[in-house]
Design a protein that fits this description.
Layout lengths: L3 H14 L10 E5 L6 H8 L9 H13 L3 E9 L2 E8 L2 E8 L4 H10 L10 H17 L2 E2 L2 E9 L3 E9 L2 E2 L1 E8 L6 H4 L27 H14 L6 E2 L3 E5 L4 E9 L5 E8 L7 H7 L10 H16 L7 E9 L4 E9 L5 E8 L6 H5 L12 H13 L3 E12 L2 E10 L3 E10 L3 E10 L8 E8 L3 E10 L7 E13 L3 E16 L3 E16 L9 H7 L2 E14 L9 E16 L14 E13 L1 H4 L4 E13 L42 E14 L4 E13 L6 E14 L2 E10 L11 E5 L4
Parallel strand pairs: 1-3, 4-7, 9-12, 13-15, 16-18
Antiparallel strand pairs: 2-3, 5-8, 6-7, 10-12, 11-12, 14-15, 17-18, 19-20, 20-21, 21-22, 22-23, 23-24, 24-25, 25-26, 26-27, 27-28, 28-29, 29-30, 30-31, 31-32, 32-33, 33-34
Length: 763
Amino acid sequence: MIKKTALVQILLSWMLVGSLLSAQKVTQIKFEGLAHLSPTTAKEIAGIRVGEEINAGKINTSIKNFFAQGYFKDVWVDQQGGVLIYHFKEKLAIANVDIKGYGSGDDGMKLLEGIGLKKGDLYDERRVKKAKRTLIAKLESQGYYDTVVDVSTSPIGESSMAIVFDVNKGEKIIIEEQNFVGAEELVQNDLELDLANKEKDFLGWMPWRNNGEATVDQLEYDAYRVKDVYMRHGYLDAYVSKPLMRVDFGSYKAKVDYQVVEGVQYRVGTIGITQDVKGLDTEDLKDELILKEGKIFNIKRMRKDISILEEEVGNLGYAFVKVAPQMHKDPEKKIINLNYVVQPGEVVTINDVIISGNDTTKDRVIRRYIYLAPGDTFSARDLKDSKNALGRTGFFEKVDVESQRISANKINLLVKVKETSTGTISAGGGYGSYEGLMFNASISDRNFFGSGINTTLGFELSKISTNYNLSFVNPKVWDSMYSLGLSLYKKEYEYIDYTQDQLGGSLNIGREFYRYFHASVGVGYVDNKSTINDTNNTLFNDYYFNLYNDQYKKSSLFASVSFDNTDDFYVPREGMIAALNFEYGQLDGDDYNATRYPGGFADIFKTSAKVGLYYGLEDWIDYDLILRLKGRMTTIISDDDKYLPIAEKLFLGGIGSVRGYQPYTLSPLDPTTYTRTGGEHRASASVEASIPLSEAAKMRLAFFYDYGMIGEDSFDEITRSSTGVVLEWQSGFGPINLVFAYPIDEKTGDQTAAFEFSMGSKF
């Protein structure tokens, strides 16, 4: 809309020159006062050409066109003979935009930029008013009421200005009470489960509790969420009104009421599938479904069954299969008969794979884990496996793989990832009364420079210790199915009674088989030297001499096979991890005790295995409960008449075996000295149930029961068990587990640990 002043100036201009316009032609067009438009662009906007007759209507239209650009406060035209002179008075430019009182300044600036208000733009009062409304609406959606936004401007020079938005957030609305009037069959905790607006919990200020803060913009959708809860419990005819929120503006406390009519609860009657896809058996498909005849109807499980059918048909190349459920209710019998109609569409091939969101990880690294390539026939199972494989890398916080239809029988795969922190860099120092001045540094990255290579380099120096370690694992050498791993370490630490000195390393190569399997072979070497600091100390008996004075070299051959089809690196909800490892080691060293061990050091054959089963129950109970079953076993075979060093033996206790006992403190004892000698057979098992605490904080709580056994000649010479809880936190520094454990069958002499923690662990 043209301002009144501009319209008046247009009329006055034409009153002065109107008599001169008759049949006169344009000889030249000039523009004065332009800054944001070039003369060439201005001529295009004006729409008037040299040589045309001067026409008042055309000039009026050209002025309107210039005002429509939004750059000008005023536009007018002078005529000097056949010369038209356009005069422009441009709006002031925004030199700076500042926002105060809106939490993170970056969030506020992004919000303003989204509506076109940023540094370098021209000042537009309409946009400023829109920005005020947007800020207030955004804060109201976060639960703030009576928000006030003041806008002030100040000139900077003659052509620009600064804008300051001063935000007073007002008060948070807290839902103190929420009622579901008419609800009898379902309890409030069930009905509130998925709501954006919930009644304040006791101790609601804690991260995993609900603080009751209202999100007003979600209120209208909460009624649909309550309705969905009823449909998950078989109440298909349930009516849920829009919520009525009443706010006490003295305390900003609110009460929310829903009116509910539950209706009858339906059970599943008959289930049928109508399909004519070659290669599919209808009865086999019915066996795959979650909903069963006679069970209470659950809309969420029906949606899951639709997904199962779509995946089964999609495995045959039908990317755009549609499964339409036909629902026939019988209110008298309180049953609902279901029939799934399968419409497969056409067989589809992959046109291209398009990757986005990877700022660090290289495209080729992501493509390694995608089992569909251009030209392949679509497979729903391959699509799912690709997403799970990317999740198992640990490179990404979020992975989405979607299909984009480009024709009736071709699609693009859109792989969208959100990267997570995969590397840590640390450096530190300090002073200890025992260690003296200390300095340490390390760098590790599971995805080194986005290459998919796992690297670690670190060192620690002090008066009594010198430690170095280097490891390198490339899981896909030259994007092949082969892997390569190398590790080296040097450790020297001076304890009070003895000095430990180890130099070691390993090299292995492996190959992936059948998508989920990996096998590897390798070699290793350890030079172990432990020396007594004071050999004249008479307190050292034969046992301590053996323990502290072990000096030997070990050359090893390794072989392993592993299986992993889980869906995530840190918090898997489905799948299994399993591994079987073998080591054959030859030990060589001085026979320092020829009388007791005339054969010298023993060779060893070590077998270890582990398995982890993960099962998420959300599809069954509508709650993110994850069950985990883990087991570990290790056994050593060695020559009975030869010496097996303490460092090669097995110990139990702590994270990874039986929590609640100090690490490595459960072991067979020497009958004379009652000191721990280690065992040759060890096994442990854990049962865990993990529940969410705070999705925003990425925190979960796991309840566990551990059982372990260890022995010299058999597994069950020593048995222990424990229970407790683990606070699992996916922090910015990596996964952190805080363990609170209770030993169930503690024995005299056991060293227990009520609290432990770990960082970066998996399995």
